[in-house]
């Protein structure tokens, strides 16, 4: 329906034909907007075929004989005779009628039709219509799916939940809930708690309450009180939170005595005793670590118990300094919440000191509080005992009295806490307000929360922001404050909040992994128990069997389930139980990053329903109020790599990319640039011959017909009707259907027949050697044994020719024809579908080359042949190393289970020979991993080595191949010369197979490929499966499979595979530079300027290598172009990536390239932190890669031509 123009192009229409008098009975494709040809009755005039390209970027004019009417004149032709409208007839079968009635009522009850119509109206009201509107539909319906959870309760019901009947006490400001004795605090806070839900914490708080002060014999004149409060989300369990993500307990010591230093020692002793109790065998709780604030603001230090023991004096000096700075000491714990179910919950235990100085020589008490702010606990939580709440208020009242008496010091300055109360001279102020509610108390507390808000990311830390905002809104009695609390309630009951609560245990597991001995039986059992709890919570939160879920959550649930299950093994002592394998930190971090990707998506959907709230505005306002830089605030307390450039940018590429556009493979612009195509409604209307009274509706109706929304909607309703049950929430399934429709719209513009005709060129293949059955594409020098696969070769300059150039420097030309009793031939072939790069496969991720060694000898001499083979490999690798044209990462044996670097080969030649012999005997793969500089990138090349031993047995030629069996390799191998192809025909086993086109041989190839396809799909490797499907399609000349394989390999899913592979390449190269720093050459400024100029050099051309193949400027350029491509792919509408995830990734990308302001020279930091950052980016994108591949596969399968895995 459209063609492309400029960056943001519109579809302009020539004057279409007047409506036909007759409607066609056989539908025809209506242009590129039609991703499937209509097979039913068309609803457009038969003559309105958009086929005359009157001008570029236009809707082609229809064929017609009449002249185009003037713009101001009505069409002279009569209107068509309209067909009778379709009307719904009641089914005659009572059962069918009953089912239809149920479905009709269901659609009406769930507002499906009205919601979809509203969404369509929002799209159709635009001046420019998107070529592919399905991403818009997906975003809209995804929010409707979340609305089901967030609006399950009415506003009145939420208001009732956040309101409780209170009872006052004799102590001012302290209130409780009528009928309950376990919640006491400020009126505004108590109003939002559920005492019944808090009862589950009674045992825990009681167990965590110290019984008395720890006093030595010399300290008996000291006394004190211990007050315990619950703060944080747990205090609002049952109201704002279904299940609080953490439990925070605050223990406040009030110590009476004559001397502050001694009081500090007592306080340290109390903390020390608490730590000892937690690490004892009798304590049911587990301590993870001790967080001690450092001298710098926003900096904390985590001490393990072992570290504290080793550096006891240093640890307590740090604790003492923190107390004097009025920053609390925190124990990170795993609290046992329920003894019967053994449920643990992560939490913190905070310690705060208040000191009352008493002296026999003075009747006055001097009070000094080391709390961060006065009355902070009252504003952040509740006390579970009334006496503790009352004592807390009466104790802090001394602070005001002490402030009145002490006055200013000599310099006119006060301590920060006392300064906030200096103007209060009485407990009851003249204006009637009291101390607790005074602005001098409330404003510093609000400022503290606002500073915490300023440090948060508006989406990634949305759940933290929600809690802080709720605390700020508690004291707001206005209508707006009530609305904010209701919005926060809904947000904290969203899928995003449930998912966040399920993921927080991951951080505790990471600490446990680094602090406990997994070999210890008790520790191992505890770790297994917590891992199983984490697994259950994580999978339950998005379980598609409990709640309807869209495809992204379904896929993540499936993949996480597999990963987590694979980390468990049966218990040797009890087959009914499982035990945890050795748990490593990297696996937990990978799972957490995968969870973060979904968290950001769910959070953005939930935040859409904010009306009063806007976290981005809130965070920005707080940062401006406290003069905090965004990056500094977001990374407060974290060490961030230094970037020398002072330029501000949203992405790395804006800083470092050159104006020239980098080429990525052989992309189809009609697909990659589809997001820029729009349809200008007014311009189409101006060329239309429809009557003015109906022209708008006609154009918009034609648009809706072209995008085939009616077929998608029918598909969705049919799935509902044929399902086991009608889901309570119908929108997640609709989201999945629309996601897949978006990919079909993007990929299925052409029919299978027309697409396969463009892709296959059987006439380019000729038989060049009848004896050995060698066929060739002589125009590009490509030869092989299968004419079927050669028909898919791209003979254009951007295709196989580039592959041929890459192979030239890797061919082994130094092998002599005879060594002793053995005759030797060598040939190099392209394999694994890499020869199809160009027209069929757009990206070259890894170039797989197969070097075949044909050794002919006597029967029984195979052992000597393998030794000779090992020597030939060693000589070839040594020769490549000496040429210094490639980066040799090393040799991998047996699928990567064993590895030898380039340096290992020099130092330990015997081990290399041993590995080669062992791998050949086991028929395992042996390959050399190489990186070759080509233009802006380093191309990954795997050079596989294959041994064929030929001998005569009883006058029969025999062949033995010492590599993994692959019957399809003979069809996929493409050689650069007829001589090499003939050598392979003679020595590669083809002679023994006979006619490769025979039914028997084709059956063997098909069985092998089918098995590989099923295995890849079972392992959720969708794009590798389609590479096998492409080979199978070529072998069988299956036009349908060829078309679908092409679509899959040109989809967004394959683009994601491509950029993920580049990410791994960067990790490999940085790791290589760390291991072998002498290999990385520091490029001069002049050479870097030359490198910039060859950014658009053809893919098959390598740049100058006078300075060696590995230099820092080229590596930095590689990273910069990767960043640009990654950003571009994630911004694709069909990627469905939340903007916050893109921002998080861009923030990480900015740290992996340094730019010197003086020389404008780029460099990639060669450090472990760079590898870690790249790995985090890879892990964040991996879930998007998985669910995009799933959607593409299902979209193509539904299209009717896809290869469907057995389990589907």
From TrEMBL:
What ranges does the record list as Polar residues composition bias? 643-660
Q: What segments bear the compositional bias annotation Basic residues?
A: 1-11
Annotated region Disordered: the residues are 1-93, 636-666
Q: What is this protein called?
A: Uncharacterized protein
Origin species = Patiria miniata
Supply the source organism's classification.
Eukaryota, Metazoa, Echinodermata, Eleutherozoa, Asterozoa
